[in-house]
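Input/output pair, single chain:
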Amino acid sequence: MNARWKQNGLTVAGGKGQGNGINQLLDSCGLYVDDDQTIYVADQSNHRIVEWKRGATSGQVVAGGNGQGSGDHQLNYPADVIIDKERDSLIICDRSSERVVRWSRRNGTSGETIISNIVCWGLTMDENGSLYVVDRIEDEVRRYRRGESQGTVVAGGNGSGNRKGEKRLLDPRLLVDLDSSWWILATLFGS
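Output:
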């Protein structure tokens, strides 16, 4: 297969310089594209999630945007966002509040903490509704089945570093392809 990319890209979100305007982003991090091509951006330094409809010239704040903080109505450097289609909600890595938050797409006024004490850096969900979360401090990926609060380590879990003979992840990230396969991007130490 020989993939070809357009030489000139098209700006689909932001593009009006850095800032806190509804047509601007500041240190955007993770993003999610839903089935109708709506883009959800973790607008990290504005402490919000912004929704950009296809062809829109500005976005709409759908989570956070109430200043930096750890209140139910606030976000604190969100790092990633996905959609839970079954529950019609956003799932957000609220990195500096060390939690994962579920935010309804219907009311959009506050979130519910579903996982605590985790420096979440990335997440994805499989077809069974299990959530896979990257813990930036522990350098591991954990799986949380619906209803679980502890999760199970599925990759990493030996800390970071380069001790001989131990498999270790350094700064892992998650990537999901079009076939819903997920991949871990990381530096792997050990033999």
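Residues 186-191 have pLDDT under 50 and may be disordered. The CA atoms of residues 12 and 55 lie 7 Å apart.
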